[in-house]
What we know:
7 helices; transmembrane
Amino acid sequence: MNGIPRAPLLLGLAGLIPFIWGAASYLSPALQAWGASMLGPRFIGPYVQIAYGQIILAFMSGVLWGFATRAETGKATTVYVLSVVPALWAFFMTGGGPTSAAVNLIFGFLGLLMLDAAFAAWGLAPVWWMRLRLLLTLVVVCCLSVGVFL
Length: 150
């Protein structure tokens, strides 16, 4: 992960913990039982992933909004509108049960990656941004896929 500043890399990796924990507690009945008794059922399996995924998509909208402040006047409206899409996606598309919510979160994070790429191509994101976002998105999508495909 050369070129990614240490703080964003470490914080980004730490931000994966709820997704990884959710996948692990989905796959392991022992972890699921321990997590349910110690943390409560909301903090295991797909439930922690869905709640946290909603938060992260909303957070990432804020990050994109920050990048939008760097846009040229003619492009500013477009990038501001695009920056709120992940938060709106999380709000409107994560109901209907854990499987459909996880599928929609997967699409949300893949769509976010496309927005990240666009913002990077427009010179609004740091040069290291896409290396970090590719890594984090890969792990998030794999973790969410556990509850959908297994």
